[in-house]
Amino acid sequence: MEETFIPLSVPNLKGNELNYVTRAVETEWVSTGGPYVDEFEHAVADYVHAKGAVSCQNGTSGIHTALLVSGVTSDDVVLVPALTFIAAVNPVAYIGAEPVFMDCDDSLCMDPEKVERFCREECETADGHLIEKTSGRRVKAVVVVHVFGNMADMERLMQIAGKYGLTVIEDATEAIGTFYEEGIYAGKYAGTIGDLGVYSFNGNKIITTGGGGMIVSDNGEYVKRAKHLTTQAKSDELYYTHDEIGYNYRMTNLQAALGLAQLEQLEAFIAVKRENYERYREAVADIPGFRLMDVREGTRSNRWFYALYCGEGGPDRDTVIRYLSQHRVQSRPIWGLICDQKPYRKARRYQIEKAADYQGHVVNLPCSSNLTPEEVCRVTEMLRQLTASGAGQIPGECSRSDVAGAENGG
Ligand SMILES: *Cc1c(COP(=O)(O)O)cnc(C)c1O
Fold it and tell me: Atom of ligand 1 at shortest distance to CA of 202?
């Protein structure tokens, strides 16, 4: 019997999606006007307890806008993670600012201790600004990514950012629904702790609008300015006056219709992801050579992506990906380091150690919100078989087709 294909991460559209989209089409409000856009913005702001939310075309445009709103210019340095999806960093380059790459800690998110060390040892304070000594440029902001839905160490990062006057942009594109349960940020959602936060609704994220994004902030001025910049910086609706260069980053009513229906199901999706995480964890716990990575203590993670660490004497990462693929299971290696990608090879990297190790050892396992317990079992059984058959004995290189497929963006 042919085994069914298990994809890595696919949309789940069985709620009110068709209803709302149909209503948008029937009322002929399909573009950037229409009631769903406002409704979706309010619904997201309510859900994460943010004062304001501005919808946009995708997470990337959201991060670009957040950097502009923060006042980052082409004279500035922005601290960014080395180990994440490249869309967290490209907007820094759009502005012409200089990214400096930071290491991760064992949560895969930015290591606060290295950020602190960088600010203390590599920078000096002049005229109230933090200046990187080698370039003489102002260090203006830091982009913190909550990798795979796992909360970064925001307590430490906010402390350090406060001490050195850095603006914090949370790339929470993978982390809508993640929040602190304990500590000084108890009840605070990923994306709402820094100065600005950004969500993505790409097809592979936990909820999707096809493509889409949202900027959130508690700072009313930031919210107003984000709306302005994403709508062509139009300062008069009738006479079309523009006081600066803006962008057409608006979300459409069709996207927002999908988003509203998806948001209604977010908690249900998270519940499934958390249950499946536990199933993976229990099964993997007694397969030698593998470890399922956990999330920060004291947080409720949305468990967007599961991270399998391969490298405790078992089969290596590429063997795992190849073997799963041969059995019609899609998995994916964690991203390569962004500072190793062609556009960023000349950029400064600061003490990258852990990111380089994790980069070579982590595999993402199927995690869709409609993944069944039987499918989780099939995947873990394969890992078991692979270990039993002896590591590294499956011939052939890991090919691109093994890992390419549906919606692999983030
Ligand atoms: C998905 C993702 C983005 C970009 O979001 P898009 O909506 O695809 O533009 C940015 N950063 C990270 C970490 C992501 O995973």
Answer: 7
Domain limits, CATH 3.40.640.10, in the chain: 17-263
Q: Determine the longest span between alpha carbons in the chain, in angstroms.
A: 72
- 236-251 burial: b if 16+ Cβ within 10 Å, else e: eeeeeeeeeebbebbb
What's the confidence (pLDDT) of residue 311?
84
pLDDT > 90: percent of the chain:
92
- The secondary structure of residue 190, as a DSSP letter, is T
* Mean pLDDT on 102-116: 98
170 in contact with ligand 1, CB cutoff 6 A: no
**Alpha carbon distance 169, 172 (integer Å):** 9
158-205 pLDDT tens trace: 999 999 999 999 999 999 999 999 999 999 999 999 999 999 999 999
The CATH classification of domain 267-402, taken from the options 3.30.470.20, 3.90.1150.10, 3.40.50.720, 3.40.140.10: 3.90.1150.10
- Give residue 396's pLDDT band: very low, low, confident or very high (50, 70, 90): very low
Pocket mutation for ligand 1, best pick of 63, 90, 171, 230 (most atoms within 8 Å of C-beta): 171
Q: Is the CB of 299 inside a 6 Å radius of any atom of ligand 1?
A: no
SS3 295: coil
Q: Does the C-beta of 87 come closer than 6 Å to ligand 1?
A: yes
CATH 3.40.640.10 fits 17-263, yes or no: yes
255 lines ligand 1 (CB under 6 A): no
Whole-number Å distance, alpha carbon 396 to ligand 1 midpoint, is 32
